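In the current project phase, the collection of sequences with tokenised folds has grown. A representative record is quoted in full directly below:
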Amino acid sequence: PWKGDREVTTSSSCSLRRGFQVYKQVCSACHSMEYLAFRNLIGVTHTEEEAKALAEEVEVQDGPDENGEMFMRPGKISDYFPKPYPNAEAARAANNGALPPDLSYIVNARHGGEDYVFSLLTGYCDPPAGVTVREGLHYNPYFPGQAIGMAPPIYNEILEFDDGTPATMSQIAKDICTFLRWAAEPEHDHRKRMGLKMLMISGLLTSLLFYLKRHKWSVLKSRKMVYRPPK
């Protein structure tokens, strides 16, 4: 089970930071995350200075300037993650006609969420006897049709984590799935904390209203008016 399924906090910042590292070094070569901005990383996986440094590594087209010309500038934390390809046609041409999906909401867009993504990443194997896979495709029992154009993206020690965590296949898959779950709902933790606060406030208000109803309003409601005519 995934920690975010039952607790207020999605996961530790260490796991999210490793997951971002996996995305940056492995996944971003083909997959975009165009709905996630560098500012979303602040306070979650990186400090503000680190997020600014990451953004400045990217060249972003901006403009027009005073001459009406577009120009390139270093990225800002308000910029969104860059796309690996300029358009969908270029992405298809570089991937044998297959369009790599954007990963911003991939966990929410697939039945099974993290479980499906984790199984897909670690489920590559040789096809069973009697099953043939067309050239350019790879056998994966967890993918619809069991043949996928994406080559196995991860394996043991494909990268070295900055914090020294052993980069086994299962650890890499777990961290990237955790990061993708957070990326699909960056406001998840804040929303749940606000929900808990609202429940606590509602409980206090309910107790206060019950007291007022029982000891104040009931007296007013049950009182009787007596008319005494003047003598």
Remarks:
- The beta strands are 59-62, 71-74, 138-139, 147-148.
